[in-house]
Design goal:
six-stranded mixed β-sheet
């Protein structure tokens, strides 16, 4: 039996990493990072329908994502387990952000699931508590639950809100999907960049340390980046790729 029959739909916005520095490797094998997360209005849409029987189910699963790796389902089950609610949910997803594109789509979908189900299930968690749960799924999930443009440090879990002026972005989506783990495991990755003191922040500050590794392994990404840099020299890759972007002050320029 379902509590509600119609899906309610909620946005799951993407992000850009305006820069991404690898400061070093930690004893636990993770990397110490410094980045700026910029939320964008390009977004997936998550549909939620509450169930009374405790079942959590994805409607029309993504072919590119194995069911056990589906972050929306994992987020729902994590909140269900932590809160001990007897309720469940059907989850639908209108996918706009590319899988493996570095725009954080899967993490944002999971964060939206946590925020929405916390309200619909009336589990009563604060945003800070939901951020802690999100971190169990990944640092980017925590950043999307935080919900503001931010400086990310540590493995991305230490977040400081950052005021950024309105900007337009041209984002190119190469036909490639990048495995983040393989990029961080690459022996040629720069791991000794010095941390920046922010604010002030301006576009063009820093770089993406993952970019040279990804461009070498994925010629199509390198080609998109070269094309974009011919028009905006400060263009760069977001996250571990594959998307590349350039910033403009006005829509007409973009």
């Amino acid at each position: 039996m379902e509590v509600t029959r119609a899906f309610e739909w909620f946005p799951a916005p993407g992000k850009l990493n305006l820069f991404l520095h690898v400061l070093g490797r930690r004893a636990d094998g993770h990397h110490e990072l410094q980045t700026v997360f910029r939320l964008i209005d390009r977004a997936d849409r998550l549909g939620v329908r509450v169930r009374a029987d405790g079942v959590i189910r994805r409607v029309d699963p993504l072919r590119e994502v194995a069911p056990e790796d589906d972050l929306c389902v994992r987020a729902a089950r994590l909140l269900q387990s932590a809160s001990r609610t007897a309720l469940g949910a059907d989850l639908g997803l209108e996918k706009v952000l590319p899988v493996g594109g570095g725009l954080g789509g899967g993490s944002s979908d999971a964060a939206t699931a946590l925020l929405v189900l916390n309200r619909l299930w009336r589990t009563g968690y604060s945003r800070t508590e939901l951020m802690a749960l999100g971190c169990e799924l990944g640092a980017d999930v925590r950043a999307f639950v935080f919900g503001e443009n931010a400086i990310g440090e540590g493995i991305g879990e230490r977040l400081t809100a950052l005021a950024l002026p309105p900007r337009w972005y041209l984002v190119l989506v190469p036909g490639a999907s990048v495995a983040t783990k393989s990029v961080f495991a690459d022996n040629t990755l720069t791991r000794n960049t010095k941390a920046l003191k922010i604010p002030p922040f301006f576009f063009g500050l820093g770089r993406n340390d993952l970019e040279p590794v990804v461009a070498r392994c994925h010629p199509e990404i390198a080609a998109h980046l070269e094309w974009l840099r011919a028009r905006q020299p400060q263009a760069r890759m977001t996250g571990s790729g594959a998307c590349v972007f350039a910033e403009f002050a006005a829509e007409g320029e973009a």
